[in-house]
Amino acid sequence: MDVSRYPDDEIIAGVDEAGRGPLAGPVFAAAVILPLDFDHPLLNDSKKLSEKKRLILRDYIIENAIAWAVASVDNDTIDTINILNATILAMHKALEKLSIKPGLILVDGNRFKPFGDIEYKTVVGGDARYACISAASILAKTFRDEYMQKLHQEYPQYNWYKNKGYGTREHRQAIMKYGLSPYHRRRFCGFYFQGKIDFK
Asked: Which of 107, 124, 176, 188 is the most buried (most CB within 10 A)?
């Protein structure tokens, strides 16, 4: 995995998201600037790691990163501006929170919008190729998971502690039984249920 493929004097921020696909909860994004000598044997795309390994890496990233930030956009905004725009907004919010301005932004995926005058590059599969994007994916994922576990305490019937808001069979059955919570994405649920529940 590459830490630096660009000139050594270029400050690179990796950006990634977590939570684009769930039926409930916010989308999270993280931005991370790593030192050139950053290394950890477990570092990889967050989706390929166990929860235990992600938490180990999160602590290591926070301790060793030059700068990092996490931001989120709530489900109501997702319903209003759609998930793609909400995801990019969360990414921009994370970049705004960085204590250091990067000279280049590496974004996982193939969609992004300009952030000020900073050059950016989208990279499909970037969370498995670039350490800074992988680090961002881990922070976004772990912070979102913790947030959904807190929401679980308020609405335990959906078992968000386990499914994190994704459309598992158990979660969909709970929606049919209990209806929607204030944290559900009505556009997403409308696609799944198509008139079978009340979306007011």
From this structure: 107
Which long-range contacts (C-beta less than 8 Å, at least 24 apart) are formed by 2-8? 2/129, 2/130, 2/131, 3/34, 3/36, 3/37, 3/38, 3/39, 3/130, 3/131, 3/132, 4/36, 5/130, 6/104, 8/36
Is 67 part of a structural domain of the chain? yes
Q: Which domain holds residue 56?
A: 12-143
pLDDT digits (tens, 9 = 90+) for 129-179: 899 999 999 999 999 999 999 999 999 999 999 999 999 999 999 999 999
Q: Model confidence over 53-65: pLDDT tens digits?
A: 999 999 999 999 9
**Residue 95, domain member (yes or no):** yes
Mean pLDDT score across all residues of the chain:
91
DSSP string, 104-115: EEEEESS----B
Q: Is 133 helix (H, G, I), strand (E, B) or coil?
A: helix
3: tokens are: 């830490």
Categorize the per-residue pLDDT at 40 as very low, low, confident or very high, splitting at 50, 70 and 90.
confident
CATH assignment of the domain containing 128:
3.30.420.10
Does residue 36 sit within a domain? Answer: yes
pLDDT above 50 for 3: no
The total number of structural domains in the chain stands at: 1
In sequence order, which residues have a C-beta less than 8 Å from that of residue 35 and are 6 or more positions away? 64, 65, 66
Count CB atoms within 10 A of the CB of residue 135: 31
